[in-house]
């Protein structure tokens, strides 16, 4: 159907709203009875025909990363990435290797299996091209062309559209060299105001503790003085970070002193749960670990994940 | 660190939030030692479920200053629970979850008292649920949530301006998890949406069409369900399939393999067979910890008012990185659960209780059969247990109008079996009953609490 449409429209698939509607009408007109499930499924799934071609923005960013200029020290991941880059430009015609699986759909068993086999065959063919390119690149950088296993390359191809690169830096770097644009963006965005406020205040509290040998609000009595001292500390911290002139909500500063370094079990349990989850992901090397600083806000639960590092590529 | 001159009390950290005033607090927050003491002495919390979420909830609540907890769960401990239901050990397998969970937390946190209830949630009187300040749910099914939601909402009364009456509001905190995903929500009946208001949030359950299973299978799951739902009955006519019986499971697996070979479909494994047949959703300890912690925190805040609360739905996703989001859903004013009730009007004053009960079965918004009826806490007719049935049977022949104190309109509660889409579930519904032909009186002095027009 898509082919038919393209033939009648200069080789191009539906893109405008009107064209998409017309395409669905075309599908409907082919129905013989009102309840043919396979046509109904086709109409529901027609959005897949309209989906933009090519690779998505996330993958494009990784392709453009300077690490794809591989050398003898490059990791297996970047070697395969370099091969993927070549594939997309050449055999892929702008697309990544075919993943190979198809969703279930109403059909006779025979037709379905046949379609499945066609997809699997193309996926296998794409894999073989990738494998060859990987071997060539390995040779070029002076490594054993068989040093990356078939299984690894296959898995890479299958997951090509979901690849992610997570970069991390030392806490020391984050403290001494935060990304100013990110900080300013968060401090002025209403959705982030509490979370960002707490980030600044948590660091201000650490500074306060170092200066005064106690936490703000730790003791009953003298609360007003603590609030004032915490505010001063927070302001000077903001200045050190290069965010002069930006302010924090008074309510948050007061609340921080009210907390008086209290540790509530449920808050600890929540944060502990998050931390343990990340540890498991890192140890088992499964799923995608979190990238950034998660600020938990137990007041209205509008917690936020802050990316406070400059997204520079480090080879 | 400076030497603390504050007394080393277990409540030291909690006191900061309960004893000190603040700006980001709940509407009726009254900080002070009395609040902390009331929380310990009088506040009662019910935890529904003693499984993955329930164990965490009991621990969290016990360590959050609550001393009077109840827990209800009808299940016994199984080996597969042990990876996350941390209150249980290998030697506990077979024992009731509620009983063991209560015992373990009480051993670990001195001063807390937990009353376990080893039974179904439907087995409890509706009034049982009214004794708690708040109900925390750690359930794993839509049906169970729907039931508790209906019970909590049944206590809700509206005043003549159609505003919820505060003293009849029974708050709930509901948590749910599935692998790396989870949600926590706050339900304040009459204020926030209740469970029924947002029932559309749930995607329909996956059911394969019969013709796919019987004639055109395409996936391994189709072959498995064929063996499980069709072939089993053909060969074992009459004998019930028991998913916990390894011999039965093995039989289904073998039959599924044969079918798959016949159609050239790959992928049938024993593990997949178990997953499909038992509808297994993997459970991770950390997700349960996170969601329960959020729920326990909200429970503390709602009961004490010590901080603003979640408004009103939190979703969590840990598959790719970490993502949490708060959505503020809006109440459905015509909701069957938390709304003012299903209207049953134009009732003749001669209609008997029996007539009324029969009517409920046909009422399109109710479809409620075998109903038991209560009016302002009084049992008009109870289908069970036999003792109560006998006691209330004589009411069946009495006009409903008389039984309700001869008022022109009032609220009733009906519980029974709801028949919807060929499925039968226990349900509880609030009914707004209006009699026809009664002059509406605007006089404020009306006996029996009739509404004013």
From TrEMBL, chain A:
Q: From what superkingdom does this record's organism come? A: Eukaryota
Tell me the keywords, alphabetical order: Ubl conjugation pathway
Molecular function GO labels: ubiquitin-like modifier activating enzyme activity
Q: Which pathway is it part of?
A: Protein modification; protein neddylation
**Entry similarity comment:** Belongs to the ubiquitin-activating E1 family. ULA1 subfamily.
Q: What is this protein called?
A: NEDD8-activating enzyme E1 regulatory subunit
From TrEMBL, chain B:
Assigned keywords, A-Z? ATP-binding, Ligase, Nucleotide-binding, Ubl conjugation pathway
Q: What CDD domains does the record tag this protein with?
A: Uba3_RUB
Task: Report which residue ranges the record marks as coiled coil.
Answer: none
Q: Which GO terms describe its cellular component?
A: cytoplasm; nucleus
Q: What class of enzyme is it?
A: ligase
Sum up the protein's function in the record's words. Answer: Catalytic subunit of the dimeric E1 enzyme, which activates NEDD8.
- Name of the protein in its database record: NEDD8-activating enzyme E1 catalytic subunit
């Amino acid at each position: 159907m898509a082919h038919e449409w393209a033939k009648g429209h200069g080789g191009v698939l539906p893109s405008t709203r009107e064209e998409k509607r017309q395409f669905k009408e075309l599908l409907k007109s082919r129905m013989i009875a009102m309840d043919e499930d396979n046509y109904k499924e086709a109409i529901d799934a027609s959005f897949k025909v309209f989906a933009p071609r090519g690779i998505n923005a996330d993958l494009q960013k990784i392709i453009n990363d300077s690490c794809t200029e591989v050398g003898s020290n490059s990791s297996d991941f970047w070697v395969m990435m370099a091969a993927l880059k070549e594939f997309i430009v050449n055999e892929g015609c702008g697309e990544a290797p075919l993943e190979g699986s198809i969703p279930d759909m109403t059909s006779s068993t025979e037709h379905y299996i046949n379609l499945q086999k066609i997809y699997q065959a193309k996926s296998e063919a794409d894999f073989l091209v990738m494998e060859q390119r990987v071997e060539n690149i390995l040779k070029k950088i002076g490594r054993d062309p068989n040093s990356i296993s078939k299984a690894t390359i296959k898995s890479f191809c299958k997951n090509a559209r979901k690849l992610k690169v997570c970069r991390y830096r030392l806490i020391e770097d984050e403290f001494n060299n935060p990304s100013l644009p990110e900080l300013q963006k968060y401090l002025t965005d209403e959705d982030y105001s509490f979370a960002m406020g707490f980030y600044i205040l948590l660091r201000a509290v650490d500074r306060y503790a170092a200066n005064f040998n106690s936490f703000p609000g730790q003791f009953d009595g003298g609360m007003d003085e603590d609030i004032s001292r915490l505010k001063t500390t927070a302001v000077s911290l903001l200045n050190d970070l290069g965010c002069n002139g930006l302010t924090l909500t008074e309510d948050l500063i007061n609340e921080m002193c009210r907390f008086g370094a209290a540790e509530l079990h449920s808050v600890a349990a929540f944060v502990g749960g998050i931390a343990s989850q990340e540890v498991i992901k890192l140890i088992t090397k499964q799923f995608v670990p979190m990238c950034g600083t998660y600020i938990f806000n137990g007041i209205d639960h509008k917690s936020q994940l802050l990316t406070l590092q400059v997204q520079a590529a480090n080879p | 660190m400076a030497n603390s001159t504050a007394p080393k009390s277990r409540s030291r950290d909690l006191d900061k939030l309960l004893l000190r005033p603040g700006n980001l607090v709940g509407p009726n927050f009254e900080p002070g030692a009395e609040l902390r003491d009331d929380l310990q002495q009088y506040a009662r919390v019910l935890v529904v479920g003693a499984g993955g979420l329930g164990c965490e909830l009991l621990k969290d609540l016990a360590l959050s200053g609550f001393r009077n907890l109840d827990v209800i769960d009808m299940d016994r401990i199984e080996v597969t629970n042990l990876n996350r239901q941390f209150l249980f050990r290998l030697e506990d397998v077979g024992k009731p979850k509620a009983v063991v969970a209560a015992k373990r937390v009480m051993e670990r946190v001195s001063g807390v008292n937990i009353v376990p209830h080893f039974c179904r949630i439907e087995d409890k009187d509706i009034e049982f649920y009214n004794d708690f300040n708040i109900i925390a749910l750690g359930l794993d099914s839509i049906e169970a949530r729907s039931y508790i939601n209906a019970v909590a909402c049944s206590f809700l009364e509206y005043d003549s301006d159609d505003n919820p009456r505060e003293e009849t509001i029974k708050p709930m905190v509901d948590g749910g998890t599935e692998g790396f995903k989870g949600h926590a929500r706050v339900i304040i009946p009459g204020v926030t949406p209740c469970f029924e208001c947002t029932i559309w949030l749930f995607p329909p359950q996956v059911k394969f069409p019969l013709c796919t299973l019987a004639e055109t299978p395409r996936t391994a799951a189709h072959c498995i369900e064929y063996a499980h739902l069709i072939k089993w009955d053909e060969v074992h006519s009459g004998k019930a399939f028991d998913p916990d019986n390894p011999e039965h499971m093995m039989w289904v697996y073998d039959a599924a393999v044969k079918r798959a070979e016949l159609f050239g479909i790959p992928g049938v494994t024993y593990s997949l067979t178990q997953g499909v047949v038992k509808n297994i959703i993997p459970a991770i300890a950390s997700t349960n910890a996170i969601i329960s912690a959020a729920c326990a925190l909200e429970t503390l805040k709602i009961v004490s008012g010590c901080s603003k609360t979640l408004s009103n739905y939190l979703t969590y996703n840990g598959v790719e990185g970490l993502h949490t989001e708060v959505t503020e859903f809006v109440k459905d004013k015509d909701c069957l659960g938390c709304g003012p009730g299903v209207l049953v009007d134009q009732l003749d004053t001669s209609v008997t209780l029996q007539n009324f009960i029969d009517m409920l079965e046909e009422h399109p918004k109710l479809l409620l059969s075998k109903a038991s009826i209560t009016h302002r806490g009084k049992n008009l007719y109870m289908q069970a247990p036999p003792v109560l049935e006998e006691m209330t049977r004589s009411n069946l022949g009495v006009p409903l109008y008389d039984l309700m104190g001869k008022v022109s309109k009032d609220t009733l509660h009906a519980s029974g079996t709801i028949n919807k889409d060929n499925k039968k579930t226990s349900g509880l519904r609030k009914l707004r009953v209006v009699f026809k032909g009664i002059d509406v009186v605007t006089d404020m002095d009306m006996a029996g609490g009739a509404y004013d027009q």
